[in-house]
Amino acid sequence: MSTPVLGGRWTWSWGATADPATARVLQTRASEVPRLLLMAWAALFFNVLTPTPVSTIVPIPSLLTHAMAQGSLLVALVLALLANPRIVVRPNVFLVLLSVMAVVALAVSIHSQFLLGSTYRAVRLVGFVVCLWLLSPWWGSRELVLLRVHRLCLWAALVPVAVGALLAPGKAFAFDGRLAGVIWPMWPTAVAHYAAVLLGTSVVLWMCRVIGGRHALLGVVLCTACLVGTHTRTALLGVVVGLVVAAGSLFLGHARVRRTSASTLAAVIVGATFFAPQVLNWAARGQSSEQATQLTGRATVWSAVSDTTRPRLQELFGTGLSDKSFKGLSVDSSWVATYLDLGWFGIVLVVSYLGALLAMAVTAARGPRRALALFLITYCIVSSITETGLGDASAYLLDLVVAGSLLSRAPQGGSR
Fold it and tell me: Between 40 and which of 5, 79, 249, 256 could a Cys-Cys bridge form, CB atoms 3.0 to 4.6 Å apart?
């Protein structure tokens, strides 16, 4: 657990349950996390915590929530500069490709039909990427610093969701019976995303004997309850596929992984046998088969985007960063949204940085770092089908930054 100590740092013990091989990889010990780094990452995380029109327990003006979230980017930049005053950066392919995307987005946005909104989003993306560069010295940290601060932020986001559901269940489930944030306004899909990432990383860390059973159990219970409450099928599918890939990378070297995989498979078979109607009813969310086939109307919007003829230049480079809608309808796909905003060039960039991360994962040494990174990358790829975020400043990019940091080698002379 994390406890504040003197000297402006936070400590977090990985526990004494790690086996010797894992201890050698992670250099398990009570290690320190710079407080400024934690605060900078928390500000970045808050920046992408997009406010929604959900009714909250204590009414908060929409203008105020947006100002707080968007203003936190400037706070993150200042804190990142304080954490890295010499502006030391670690070159890596992922951030280079993100930088190219940010520059192209800005260049295209200043020629957009919606000049102010598009350019403002592009400037925020540039600031977001600059902040990530300032935090790059912590990539490859043996203490997994970025993973730890990211998990702390996920806990900080999900605990208020659970508290809100207990205090005001009517408001929390007012969005078509799906769990939303009512202390800080959050979409059900956002709650599902945070729950899925925290759940998956908790399971992988537990399987590698990095965190203890009580810590993992608390995370699994909270995150599973949030996932079930949000009725978000893509997030659940992303967790399942991500954990299968992560467990597969650990299967030969960890007995706990093999035992957990076998027991989970048996539990799934038993659950599918006795609770199939309930599971199908949950997955259907009261929708007809036609609605389910159309992915709740998403397929119709995607087809409309595909059928729309655009000038050749817009096909190649898009029309600039938008609010991820098409003719007033939500796009709800990273790939379609990126095509609209940045054209085929943006699609190539997204494929390139995902491919770079996968290549790093394939060539990395087998162990907890690789398994965690594979889970995060796989989850983001699966979720990107029905969620936006890969082509703009988002929690998905933060997840992928954490994955990249796990796959990087430790800087010479030790970790930060």
Answer: 79
